[in-house]
Specification:
Layout lengths: L4 H11 L4 H16 L5 H16 L2 H12 L11 H4 L3 H16 L2 E3 L8 H8 L4 H10 L1 H13 L5 H5 L1 H4 L9 H6 L12 H7 L20 E3 L6
Parallel strand pairs: 1-2
Helix pairs in contact: 1-2, 1-7, 2-3
Length: about 230
């Protein structure tokens, strides 16, 4: 099985709140993504378009665009359990279990970041074996596909970084429904298709991650994840 760990870290960086370190690393990310054999040509092309956008816009514009894209509605939220549990009590327990998985790998969150944030989850996968990472990613493939479809409907190049996770999970590439595909080049970024049916499909389903009950380690050697968005 191909080792996707460096790619998980790069996709995590692309999906995190933009900062100067991301801009400084875009050339390396572009080369690595273009060479990765798991990506079909259409996925590589879409990722290249995203890197082009990140390379040519100002950092302030990118940060505003990021907030508008991911923080203005549930259907494009990068917090995975929000798509499953909403704000219910079950979400809290699911995050406790996921946090235990991270800490068992000596990964510790800081600055109030939540463990179900997709960029953090991808950094965790980058520390796992290829087989384990693929299996864990496969458990959220339906959510990933729904987010990517909504992002495509908003006509944002960020859809590429989310959709790229599907082949890494052994899933079929994103097939955007015809009405959405026809609108990608024409609708304004602020408009999105109705995601209520997708939300309803998962909101009451339990999510179980492999090894979610892993014990905490007593002596941490942390790789820290920082919430870079302004409070």
């Amino acid at each position: 099985m191909e080792d996707n760990r460096p790619i998980f870290s790069m996709l995590s960086a692309l999906l995190d709140y933009p900062d100067q370190s991301l801009l400084d690393g875009l050339a390396e990310i572009r080369i690595a993504l273009a060479r990765h054999r798991a990506f079909p040509p259409a996925t590589r092309s879409a990722l290249n378009d995203l890197v082009d956008r990140l390379s040519t816009a100002s950092l302030m514009d990118l940060q505003e665009e990021y907030v508008e894209t991911f923080d203005r509605g549930r259907t494009t939220s990068l917090y995975l359990f929000e798509h499953v549990h909403g704000e219910s009590r079950e979400r809290g327990q699911a995050m406790v279990d996921l946090l235990a998985m991270y800490e068992a790998k000596e990964l510790f969150l800081t600055d109030g970041e939540l463990p179900d944030y997709l960029p953090v989850f991808l950094e965790f996968l980058a520390q796992e074996t290829p087989a384990k990472a693929s299996g864990l990613l496969g458990e959220v493939a339906n959510i990933v596909r729904a987010i990517a479809t909504q992002l495509a409907a908003r006509n944002t190049p960020y859809f590429a970084a989310v959709a790229a996770l599907l082949p890494l999970a052994g899933e079929a590439p994103l097939a955007i429904p015809a009405p959405v595909a026809a609108s990608v080049a024409n609708i304004p970024p602020s408009r999105e298709v109705d995601g209520q049916a997708l939300d309803q499909e998962w909101q009451d389903e339990p999510v179980s991650f492999l090894g979610a009950q892993a014990p905490l380690l007593e002596t941490p050697q942390p790789i820290r994840f920082y919430d870079k968005r302004p409070s």
